[in-house]
Amino acid sequence: MQKVTIRLRSMFSVTLINLVGKVGSGKTLFMTADSVNSGRPIYANYEIRHKKYRALTPELLMDPDLHGAVICLDEAYAWLESRTSGKDINRYMSYILFQSRKKDMDIYMTDQLSSTIDLRFREMLDWEIRCKVIPTYKHPKEFRYTIIDVAERKAYRFILPIENAKQYFGLYNTNQPISPIDDEMMVKISKSKDSILEQVDGIVDAIMNECPIKLINKAVIADFCIRNGWAKSYVDMSYNAFKRRVARMT
What we know:
Blueprint: H1 2-11, E1 16-20, H2 27-38, E2 42-44, E3 53-55, E4 70-73, H3 77-80, H4 88-103, E5 106-111, H5 119-123, E6 127-135, E7 140-149, E8 154-161, H6 162-169, H7 183-189, H8 194-210, H9 218-227, H10 233-249
Parallel strand pairs: 1-5, 1-6, 2-3, 2-4, 4-5
Antiparallel strand pairs: 6-7, 7-8
């Protein structure tokens, strides 16, 4: 696969690549193998057992050292869900994609259905790779890839025999769960805090309606946040907002 992926790497210069296929169809296999063979720094949201791998977080995407890197997003819907199109994380990731052109980054995504990915990313795809395993996931003989140039509507075929694929199996855990971006991270990366402040004010309003002011302390606020599914960072923000509101009342 070394020679083939080097050829594909020249085709995939500064680009967005989406690999689509069923479970076990070789999406992560191709993404991992091509990234490792590129010789470039690799930032991925799943573990790759390679010296150039670094765990990817949304904060790291703003790191200037990412110049020339390969970004790997396995199960990309966990970060780029179409149903959250208007939320901060999607706008943030869109910004990263636009900046990737300047940073000479390549971005890989894998998913089972393209429709689960934010429309903005689907419209900016350079290449789509349709993945298939023959004959079955339990007894594979080869992985077949249809590589489509989205702009030119040209298709290329690539077959990876199971004997050649085995050298890459030890680089990653195909069963590793992919964690979505949590609320704590959303608070950190959100540039506009208006919506967060509205939520904090709502928390304070609810607690003050439930409890006498003299009995409200940080423990009460923490308990309220936990029971109502708010991220830990909301505890401090809500407590500070509560103290400020009480001070203004005196």
